[in-house]
Amino acid sequence: MSDTEAVVSHEYDFESWCRVLAENDIPMQIACAQRSTFRASLKSRNLGGIHFFDIRSDAHVAKRTSLNLMSDDMRVYGITLQIEGSSTISQDGQTSVLNPGDFALYDSTREFAREFFDNHRCLIVRFPHTMMQLPSHTLRHVTATRFGASEGVGVVVSPFLLETANNLADLSGWSGVRVAHALIDLVSSAFAEKLTDEQVATANPRANAFVRICDYVADNLGDPHLSPDYIAQANFISTRQLHKIFHAERITVSQFIRERRLEQCRRQLADPADAHLTVGQIAAQWAIYDGAHFSRIFRNAYGMSPRDYRRSQLDTSVA
């Protein structure tokens, strides 16, 4: 599987650390008070397009600035778990201190800053926007928010992240990719829970309805009747109200359904367990029946046709 790579481990001084971050992570500005003595180590792994970075380093600051945003168009999320020591994360007007067991989210499409203190270790999980169950505009409400290991879904998510970091070398093949996908889905649940709790606390029924409706859509993606009218009726609101709720989150109902269906198709196309299914059969499982239409929207989303994507992920191709 070409999108799954073995664990790579290296140690760096400050200059080489800046270079490796530029090559492997999103472009950022790096600063350090003790450059001559700075040391860092990195273990990395790519599982199905989900990148894991297990980092140990001395104190330094990393900032994604407006200049960095102008130089690339990467649309990825990062989940950072503090394993040892401490760090801070800042984005969208929010700053949090992370201690061991805490994790947080950042979005590469906007400025953010990280400050790492001496003798720290963290896991960073980086993945495309399309893998998250909620849209970017909605998730800006939880970026740089601390999620603790003893709070809500964090009780499950934090140990899962830690065990992933400690066992990167043992994750391989499609079983490793499935673990990575399960991790992203679990983290998505943590963010959805946080959004719902905050919306209830601030008496924001519109935003709370949006998260609830997103869950409904995710549970019914294979239903060919899934449409704005169908969703509105099932959630006891008018179609006009439904469109207003989604408009406030800067996404249309149809776009959200399409993106979630495409992501499910992408996962199945790369899964050897589904190699006996044709591309058309996989698309039909997610209520996409027009082969030419599916090929066109898949290519627009992922840069290649469904057949080419499957071929790039599997040792053998079933078209």
UniProtKB/TrEMBL annotation:
Keywords: DNA-binding, Transcription, Transcription regulation
HTH araC/xylS-type domain span: 211-312
TM region(s), chain numbering: none
Recorded GO MF terms: DNA-binding transcription factor activity; sequence-specific DNA binding
PANTHER family: ARAC SUBFAMILY, HTH-TYPE TRANSCRIPTIONAL ACTIVATOR RHAS-RELATED
Stated name of the protein: Unannotated protein
